[in-house]
Amino acid sequence: KIIKDKVYSANAYIDSFSIADALDTGADIVLAGRVSDPGLVVGPAIYEFGWKKDDYDKLATATLAGHVIECGAQCTGGNFSKWDEIDDLTNLGYPIVALADECAFTVSKPENSGGLINKYTIIEQVLYEMGDPKRYISPDVIVDFTSFTISEEFKGKIKISNIKGYKPTDTYKVSINYFNGYKATGQLTVSGPNALKKAKLTAKIIWGRLEAAGFVFDDKLTEFLGYSSCHGEKLSEHKENSEIVLRLSVRDFDKNKIIRFSKELAPVITTGPPGITGFSGG
């Protein structure tokens, strides 16, 4: 009710049978709208094998296959936690799924391509966007991601089998965009001794000048990139860096405030502590 009058768009994640219906008309290209990411595999499989809506295990198999390759090379060595064990990321090979009319599929990559494919690269991708692993919800089926067996048929080829699926929910997921104000982000690179201390002072100067000029924002954010900016206190304390990127962000319904914020960053290069460079954004 709060956002109803501010909605710009709403997209339901429709099921993959709509893709199969389009292919059944003889279409070479299907403009799918907002289907699920695995639906790009599930839809063609439904069409090719003639699956029905209650072929839950087979639909679950195709959904898992689609989930494994939906992020491209993330299952063949990209974004892999053991990245330093991969010889060649320059010529990274993208995944190939071989799917049949059964509850199993294989994943491989082109010969002579870089990257890495093994059960660990696959499992890391399986964990992507995971909620309840026993109930991975898609428009077509609920998949039990704890049910399958994964094995290495030979080097560079992984087989996944025994996937279990269940009746889907009676609702669709919806992605909604609504107007919630304007925003802007700007960055400054702060260098030299005591970089973090200077970055904190620089942020204090900018926010203080804006407030003194009468500009108070609905939301604002101060980040120190390079100093625990991603992991916070989850990793051991960083030693003092000799370089910090200061990133400031604001959001407000008044666009004039955003414009005023964008004019405050560059001047601090010559009106704040020394060693500031790399101005961008705003």
User: Which shape, going by the Cα principal axes?
Assistant: globular
Counting copies of identical and different chains, the oligomeric state is single chain
Question: How are the strands of the largest sheet arranged?
Answer: 2-3-7-6
Report the count of strand segments: 13
Low-confidence stretches: none
Count of individual helical segments: 7
Q: Please, what is the average pLDDT?
A: 91
Supply the helix-strand structural class.
alpha+beta
Order of helix and strand elements from N to C terminus: EHHHEEHEEEEEEEHEEHHE
C-alpha Rg (nearest Å): 25 Å
| Residue share in β-strands | 25-35%
- Termini separation comes to 33 Å
What characterizes the major β-sheet?
4 strands, antiparallel
Question: What proportion of the residues is helical, as a percent range?
Answer: 25-40%
Task: Break the fold down into its secondary structure elements and pairings.
Blueprint: E1 7-12, H1 17-24, H2 39-49, H3 56-69, E2 96-99, E3 104-108, H4 119-126, E4 136-137, E5 142-144, E6 149-154, E7 157-161, E8 164-166, E9 174-178, E10 182-191, H5 195-212, E11 219-225, E12 243-252, H6 255-262, H7 268-271, E13 276-281
Antiparallel strand pairs: 1-9, 2-3, 3-7, 4-5, 5-8, 6-7, 10-12, 10-13, 11-12
Helix pairs in contact: 1-2, 2-3, 3-4
